[in-house]
Write a structure and sequence with these properties.
Elements lengths: L14 E3 H15 L3 E5 L9 H6 L4 E3 L4 H13 L3 E7 H7 L1 H9 L6 E5 L17 H6 L5 E3 L4 H13 L4 E4 L4 E3 L14 E4 L4 E5 L3 H13 L5 E5 L2 E3 L3 H11 L2 E8 L4 H12 L4 E6 L9 H7 L4 H16 L7
Parallel strand pairs: 2-3, 2-4, 4-5, 5-7, 6-7, 10-11, 10-13, 13-14
Antiparallel strand pairs: 1-8, 6-12, 9-11
Helix pairs in contact: 1-7, 3-5, 8-12, 9-10
Length: 331
């Protein structure tokens, strides 16, 4: 198991939107490879693709509000040897263009990269119609598709560069609001490779996206209670790092998953599907439970939907009760 010491002061940490990391990564990918092209859909600045457009205008195409055409054009470009990045709000990209992604891109295993912005409820005031809470589920079920949910802006940049360098469809999920930067330029990143960011033997908290930071905060608080929680940054949802996740379950004997997404079909579902077949342990899932998002302040929404450190800590206490007393029943 790869373990990375992040050396964080959780009370004094810089914040940056993951969409900025995507924009930076896209510009860098364009510098490295002249075949990288970008397709926008009238929200170019919001998803930071305007940075690529301004740098490489001859390699940028605006298709207007036409998500299905956006994917179709990208598929055609990929057949000419280009490496197209399709960027849109995740709820529209994964929803309205799902048929084109499934049949045109994934079925043919085309080299199209998908940037899904506005992931999760932390989008805030844009509300339920723009808050993508289901796209991990509908993307990870597609053959040939890789799904990545980076923990912060630095990791989003690395994920974008990594996506440009491999062949085949990749979906990268990122958000709008500033999130804590828990990694840096030297922190390891490899598609399909989860890593431990905090050692522990009592329970493994497996998280993705902004929930990695929340998990670290929860683990620090639990440590004061004598509970040693391992924290895993599981940035790649598909393909899962089976070896690392199974090892974490075997070491701790209990698992909590944490994600800013519906628990049905999301990262937690993927992890527990794996463990159910290889290393069944008591488990709890922190995420959104069968409801749409709402308009509001991002911090208030995260608290309202049970997606902060205290909710993760509560899940840990509950799963440890199951682990230590298997015969007990939850009330």
């Amino acid at each position: 198991m790869l373990t990375v010491d992040l050396k964080l002061d959780l009370n004094n940490i810089q914040k940056k939107p993951t969409r900025d990391g995507y924009g930076e990564g896209l510009v860098e990918a364009g510098r490295k490879d002249l075949n990288v092209v970008a397709l926008g859909a009238d929200i170019t600045a919001s998803v930071r693709v305007d940075w690529f457009r301004d740098k490489y205008p001859e390699r940028f195409i605006s298709v207007g509000i036409a998500e299905q055409n956006q994917v179709g054009i990208a598929a055609g470009l990929s057949l000419t040897g280009k490496v197209p990045f399709v960027t849109n709000y995740g709820v529209f990209l994964a929803g309205r263009a799902w048929d084109q992604i499934r049949t045109t891109v994934c079925y043919a295993n085309l080299n199209v990269k998908l940037g899904g912005a506005h992931g999760g409820i932390s989008v805030g005031p844009d509300g339920a119609t723009h808050q993508a809470l289901e796209e991990i589920a509908v993307m990870r079920c597609l053959p040939n598709m890789k799904v990545v949910v980076p923990a912060d802006a630095n990791e989003t940049k690395k994920a974008t560069l990594a996506a440009a360098e491999i062949y085949g469809p990749v979906y990268i999920r990122f958000g709008r609001e500033k999130v804590p930067s828990i990694t840096n330029e030297d922190t390891p990143f490899e598609l399909g490779k989860a890593y431990c960011v905090r050692k522990g033997t009592d329970v493994a908290i497996i998280a993705c996206g902004a929930m990695v930071y929340e998990s670290l905060v929860a683990a620090e608080k639990l440590g004061k209670e004598g509970i040693q929680a391992m924290v895993i940054n599981n940035h790649t949802i598909k393909p899962l790092d089976a070896k690392t996740l199974i090892e974490a379950a075997r070491i701790t004997g209990a698992v909590v998953t944490a994600e800013e997404h519906q628990v049905a079909g999301g990262m937690g579902s993927a992890v527990l599907e794996l463990l159910a077949q290889n290393c069944p342990v008591p488990a709890k899932m922190v995420g959104v439970y069968d409801r749409f998002g709402e308009s509001g302040d991002p911090d208030i929404l995260m608290k309202e939907f049970g997606l902060i450190d205290t909710n993760i800590a509560d899940a840990v206490r509950a799963v440890l009760k199951m682990k230590n007393n298997p015969e007990s029943k939850e009330e």
